[in-house]
Amino acid sequence: xxxxxxxxxxxxxxxxxxxxxxxxxxxxxxxxxxxxxxxxxxxxxxxxxxxxxxxxxxxxxxxxxxxxxxxxxxxxxxxxxxxxxxxxxxxxxxxxxxxxxxxxxxxxxxxxxxxxxxxxxxxxxxxxxxxxxxxxxxxxxxxxxxxxx
Length: 149
Fold this sequence. Notes:
Elements: H1 3-10, E1 16-17, H2 23-33, E2 37-42, E3 45-51, H3 52-61, H4 71-74, H5 88-97, E4 102-107, E5 110-116, H6 117-140, H7 144-148
Parallel strand pairs: 1-2
Antiparallel strand pairs: 2-3, 4-5
């Protein structure tokens, strides 16, 4: 399975925020949409990523006060990206090896979508279930000669 297959399953909806936005407003967007990350966009181009990890670090550093903190101050400025033609095995290795839960997928400079570790797990489960069904059908429908041998 390729990354493009996961994007096709989940859709390409990407929630974004500007670097000048308040972190508290970004948290509101994340909570409202039940998501753990936002793509930071500036002039139509991805400038970074904001995940709950950066928000928690900022909360700890500022003793719970996010009043005037801006997204651009805490975002990941150059996030690791995936390509639509990479395999799901490569994607898992990149995500676990770099300790990232959210990976933007781009084709050149064009952002195609965002893959979460949850999306990867769901795709693996779906693929494994499909393979199991095929194997069960094959075993149940084998010709009699093969069963006796």
